[in-house]
Every structure is written in C-alpha cells, then in structure tokens.
UniProtKB/TrEMBL annotation:
Species this protein is from: Halohasta litorea
Name of this chain's protein: Class I SAM-dependent methyltransferase
Keyword Nucleotide-binding: no
EC annotation from Swiss-Prot or TrEMBL: 2.1.1.-
SUPFAM superfamilies: S-adenosyl-L-methionine-dependent methyltransferases
CDD domains in alphabetical order: AdoMet_MTases
GO molecular function: methyltransferase activity
Length: 234
C-alpha cells in the first residue's frame, strides 16, 4: 500500500483528524459521513465491517447509529485513536478495532451485512484484490470511494506524502466487473480540491462549499468532481 510507513507513524495518527477535518475540513467530514449513511443506513442491529478504518471516524459514527461494527486497519497508532474515540462517546461495547491486512480479511464468506472502505482505494496498490475481499466477506452491500482522474486533485496529487491513485470511470467499471459487483448507486462531489478546504477557517470555507455544491449540480459537475462514492452489491 502506498505510504504505508507514513500512515502508521504515531505523530500522523495523533494529528490526522485535526489536520484534515477541523475548520474548513469539517465540510469534508460531514459530506463523507452523509455518503456512508445514505448508502448503508439504517444500520441499527446490522453487522458491519469498515476496512481501513483509520482513527475510527466512520466506525464510531456507525456504532452510534446502532450497528455492531468492526474497524480494521494496518496501523496500531490509528487503531489506538479509534478506541479512545469510541470510549469517549460511550460506544466501545458496540465496536471492535482489529489490526489486519485488507488483502486477506480474517473473516469467513458472507460474514457481514455490509462492508465499506473510505479513503482507501487511492492508496491501494492491488485494488481488485482488495475489492474482491470486501465482496467475499459481505452478504450483499459494498461501499467505497475513489479520487478521480481529470479532477482538480490532479493539480496537487504529486505533492502528497503517500501518493494517490486516481480513477477514471472506465477504471471503476472494470474494477467492479473484475470483482463481480453490480453498481447500485453513485454520487460525485467536491470540484474544489480537499486541500483548499483544509487550509481555511470554517467561516471562510462555508461560502466556498456553497459555490462548490452549486457547481456540482451543473451539467459538468459529475465530470469535474474529485470524489466519487460507489454503492455496490453482489
């Protein structure tokens, strides 16, 4: 996986949420959580797996919605942040955080009602292998996102410390076909780059987000969007 050593560093885990999802980054956090809940909710009583759960942003959210969820990640430092977060909001009895490899998930076939992975496939060096594993352990639903070729992310992609794989629509369609998954629904967002939001105070980022949302609803919105959310099923 790209940037594996960087991702597992203690200091990266400790600063991860603050650097990316505070101030203007809160609009990114909100939209990503809406995308997950819109696709997979309601989740009360559902058994769910999050692959590459990081600091547990989505894992904890799903537990708060009543899911019994496992968050799997390769980074002990990230998992530690997730456990602390779950304990602070009182859902640690609904969450289990595990260290593991997304290419060899330690679960039997059809074990979960749904499986999802956010902010993962841009780092995946073997995306088909990973997606097949997500499909294998899910009874039906698989949800994931991609960063898109031809979007504003191309402008600064080379600056990122861990690199980033960008996908065309044809790439995603090929990935789904090779993984034997059917596309159930899709949505696309963020014409303006993530990096811009993270550098701005919330009140400055707010009108930009309104502008971005408006552009996204135009005829070129889907084509220029930097992020796509894919809701698939077996």
């Amino acid at each position: 996986m790209k940037g594996k050593e960087w991702y597992q560093a203690d200091d990266v885990a400790e600063e991860y949420d603050d650097k990316r999802f505070s101030e203007g980054g809160a609009f990114i956090d909100r939209r990503e959580k809406e995308a997950v809940l819109s696709a997979l909710g309601p989740v009360e009583g559902e058994r769910i797996l999050e692959v590459a759960c990081g600091t547990g942003r989505f894992t904890v959210m799903m537990a708060q919605q009543g899911a019994d969820i496992i968050g799997l990640d390769i980074s002990p430092a990230m998992l530690s942040q997730g456990r602390q977060k779950a304990k602070e909001v009182g859902v640690d009895d609904h969450v289990e955080f595990m260290r593991g490899d997304a290419a060899r998930l330690p679960f039997p076939d059809d074990h979960f009602d749904a499986v999802f992975a956010m902010r993962f496939f841009h780092l995946a060096d073997r995306p088909v292998t990973f997606l097949r594993e997500l499909r294998r352990v899910s009874k039906g639903e698989v949800f994931f996102d991609t960063f898109n070729l031809g979007s504003t992310r191309v402008i600064y992609n080379w600056l990122l410390p861990m690199g980033s794989r960008l996908y065309s629509r044809r790439d995603v369609e090929s990935l789904l076909a090779d993984s034997e998954l059917e596309l159930r629904s899709e949505s696309h967002d963020f014409i303006l780059p993530y990096g811009l939001y993270r550098q701005l105070p919330r009140e400055v980022a707010r009108p930009l987000r309104r502008l971005d949302t408006g552009l996204g609803k135009s005829t070129v919105g889907d084509r220029l969007a930097s992020v796509s959310y894919w809701h698939t099923t077996k």
